[in-house]
Amino acid sequence: MEKHIQLPLTEELAKTLHAGDSVLLSGIIYTSRDAGHKRMCEALARGEKLPFDPTDATIYYVGPTPAKPGQVIGSAGPTTSGRMDAYAPTMMSVGARGMIGKGARLPEVVEAMKKYHGVYFGAIGGAGALLAKCIKKAELIAYEDLGAEALRRLEVENMPLVVIIDSEGNNLYEMGRKDYLEKHGQK
Asked: What are the Fe-S hydro-lyase tartrate dehydratase beta-type catalytic domain coordinates in residue numbering (predicted)?
């Protein structure tokens, strides 16, 4: 059964999500990849504010392609999340709670997720055109010089995702591996 999630991703909402849950996400999300994250973390280190309010925000690790005429956005498939691992704990420390991407996360990120009640959602790599159809509005808000890595504000509707790591640190990748090995008589 899919859970319909309306953002923002509050702490209370995050606690209701569990590794393995299928969700349809709707609301406002922000885009950023490693270059944008680096800039935001440097700004925070200088005591500056971010170009958006990170409180209960969800950040999609994506560098969308340019929109074709009549489209809101181009293909918008997930970026490998490990590229943001150096920055994710800092972003969570200032209020960001949700992350959307693909691939495994470092233990330091999982620990920060437990501390700040974060959730890591997995999007299917290679499905950028399909995911773009869930994006109803896109607005460039900062770092235009970064091109595809610029910071954008997106309005999404029923974006299909899976909770990979929940706010308690339960990790679908680890759970799946363990279940497989147990079913096949290996430990």
From this structure: 7-174
- Average pLDDT per 10 consecutive residues for the chain, totaling 187 residues: 94 97 98 97 97 98 93 94 97 98 97 98 89 95 95 98 97 75 65
8 contacts 28 by C-beta, under 8 angstroms: yes
The residues near 69 (Cβ < 8 Å, ≥ 6 apart) are: none
C-alpha 92/C-alpha 99 separation (Å) is 10
Q: For residues 187 and 165, what is the distance between their CA atoms, to the nearest angstrom? A: 22
Place of tokens 């709670």: 97
- The pTM of the full predicted model, rounded to 2 decimals, is 0.93
Note whether 114 and 101 are within 8 A (CB).
no
Copy the structure tokens of residue 104. Answer: 């495994």
